[in-house]
Amino acid sequence: MGFLANVADVLVGTCCVSCRNPALGLCAECAAAVRPHPRIVRDQPCRVAAAGEYDGALRSAIIAWKERGRFTVERPLAHLVAASVLALEAEGPIALVPIPSRPDRRRARGADVVSDLARRAAALLRSVDVDASTVPSLAFVKRVRDQAGLSATARADNVRGSLVARRVPTASVVLVDDIVTTGATLGEAVRAFGARGLSVDGAAVMADRS
Asked: According to the model, what pLDDT value does residue 110 have?
């Protein structure tokens, strides 16, 4: 991380979110472990590309970013999303549509972290001449429970009818989320766009947990 990062580690006790060695976000070894290796991991409810598996250093980085406010890892995580978007090979201008955080989670975190991640990924894509923008189209219209610990069927029941597409992008729609587990939330997003007569070109996530 360089001399200044090492000084910061000594002064403020910052450590790698994965291995706990001194670092401002990820140490060099753990950063190498979360480099993107995007692939298509499923075809339903749409084509889904993931940049890695939900384990090891990547799992630690996602948890630290999402649940502990360690936003110093947002940039490398945005690279994962950008790589997944490219793996989808969507045509024309691309609208990155983040899966919104539940209102209670957004209040607790002080931010809609997936939306922030999508914006950063869009900027990275534009830096390599990909016409990408972020369109926060989706919104919750009913309360849903935390999905953790629910079966695939229970997850689908929990999110059914919970999202609406308030804006209709004029570009290829690519959903953005942190991880894919059963695909229930992505399926609900696909349904919400279908209700507006729009198809979804794919979904880009950092990690596959299925």
From this structure: 67
